[in-house]
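Our preliminary data section would be incomplete without showing what the modeling component actually yields. Below, a chain of 190 amino acids is followed by its predicted structure, encoded as tokens that our downstream tools consume directly.
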Amino acid sequence: MTEHGDESPSSGQPAAGDPLGMGDDEAITGELLKEPGLADELIRQNTLMYGGLIGLGVVIVQPYIGSDDLPPLGLVTVISFALAIPLLAMLMLLGSQEAYRHRVSRARSVGFARGVAMAAACVGTVAAFWQISWIAGVVILVSGAVAIGVQSAGYVKLEPEMMRKAETLSLGRVAARRAARKGRRPDVER
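Predicted structure:
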């Protein structure tokens, strides 16, 4: 464990309390974040995304403020953004502290809050478009899926070294777990 309660990413072995290697993603992320400038870039991108989602939520919810009779999808929209906006605001504030320290928080509560905020903002957005037209709802769902695919493909092409490093770390951890199950050290060939 590090001083922040994180698992040590450098051992190549699952943590003692993690015999199945469930912390592999966290450990690999920790190793990749050692890349110079990567943490600052992730913080910048996340803060931009959080601000954009807050703005989107305010614009989408605005017509419902003061309305006595909300349609079911309008209620879903309002509740989703009521959940998302405070979490996104907290994540933006945390982003300022992360930028000051030049490192990304890896606390599980932050990851959980990030996931809930993003999911709630997506649900609220889809519900708002679906209320206008089910076709618009389907279009935004498909468009969002395509956008994620395009961003992922672009990242892989822009960061081939980072992807190779992640794959190497992941394969090394798999080999270490297999060797541990067989009762031998991973660096000793038989």
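Residues 64 and 75 are 9 Å apart (CA to CA). The mean pLDDT is 80. Preliminary results of this kind motivate Aim 1 of the renewal.
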